[in-house]
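Much of our argument rests on the idea that a fold can be written as discrete symbols. The amino acid sequence and the backbone structure tokens for this protein are reproduced below:

___
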Amino acid sequence: MKVIITDDEVQIRKGLRMKVNWEEEGFQIAGEASNGVEALELLRSLDIDVVITDMRMPIMDGIEFAKRCQLEFPNVKVVVLSGYSDFEYVRGSLKEGVKDYLLKPVAPDELIEILTKIRKEIEVEKRNQAESARLQRLVHSQLQEVQEQFLLYLVKEEWLELGMVTERLRQLRLEELVNENTEVQFVTVEIRENTGNPNRLKELWLTFQMVCKEIAKGHFRTYSFYDPSYANMIHFILLLDSEKENSPVSLVKKLQRSVKELLNLETVIGIGNVTSGIANYKTGYISSLLAWSQSQLGSQSQVMDGSNVKKEVFEFSPDMERKLTNGIESVNYDAFKENIHILLGGDRNLSIMSFTFAANRVLFLLGSLARKYNIETIDFQNLMWKCQQSIWELNSHNKVIEYLLQLAKLIIEKVQMARFSNGKLIVASVQQYLDQHYASEISLSLLSELFHINSAHLSETFKNTVGQNFSDYLVQLRLEKARDFLKDRQLKIIDVANLAGFSNSGYFSTVFKKYFGQTPVEFRNSIDS
């Protein structure tokens, strides 16, 4: 572990070097500085674990250095040396980046005691970081990550062509989801803390993800995915067989038992309604969230079964979805508002469950349109969260409608701005769409329909803004994605080609070599060398 000694007096720096046998204590003195500014410069060029600094120095003193260090280098441990008169001040600064302090003159045994304590802390932190990195690798193989992203897309986003969706499912080895007659159920699982330490949820999140993936992998015809909109939750898609033997009951029992035994956490589980056909996945997903939302507050484990709710509750016609989308994209706020009141207004006498479902479908639609037009501001996200909370709490129908209309107005303003931005904002949205759907059969005519812009104008604007024509940009994007897939050695070259959107592996290899100067096989071999 590397140390910097910082003091404006050379003799004190020399004295500290001689106080202890640094190598024997597991440390190496990597440099010296005469003030805080010099120490920060060293930290920017060296990989340092510990800084021992004097309290009083010119230009930048020890306390100011510790504050700056905490901001720029939060993992570096700072030990401050102080005289007796500064003792209380230094001790009060322990929350401001100072790890520990030593009184002058420094006694060797006290220095050794602090170094030993810090060394043990750093060793634990590095072990935890290594374990976290290992879990991250386990949790996210390249194929699994893309599968999860697409499952989330199925249940949250708008999609134009069913053929594109089914083809992508086949590319991702999710063929069994394509069958329109296959019945599925969604299961939502939230972890809750039962020891009074809320940080445990964050600490155990990756482990929880890995446990869920392992359970899904071992459970017949079951997939899991994560939705960033809902903290501390993983969602499952369970494909039912004709005899209903593959029911959620065994999955739920295994989840509860594993999470309790391995993580000592409680689980709150929502079981959704049975549905069939990928066009109805949004309904199935929201039904599991609705079931979960009926749970009680507190840390006790609960299972909320919403599978017996009548199908009439989950009514949201494609025609209404189209009208609401057109209201946004045609910049017609009044039309959107009128249809919201038709859907959610008091004249329909909706049950609480029906209102909650319909409001969630509208919120999903607005979220999809916001991502389409790249509206990711903090204010917008906060308003989305307030709307979601208002839907779950359901203190006021009017409040929910008000939030939905506010969100719609913000999106309409962004759409209007995009139409009058010389095409630059539209091109940015197109690039974001391509980044998500690079493997699909994408044409300029499809994009022009999706973003309500003339295809010839889009082609010209795209080239002027990006510096490449559309087809060259898409090929380059696919090649960059393919390079990431090649890092996963479980994937064959033909699998990588399909996942990246190349229907012919021979053509893929030729284009890859032309672009990167190596064949896919040569690139994969070069990773390890």
Observations:
- The mean pLDDT is 87.
- The radius of gyration is 29 Å.
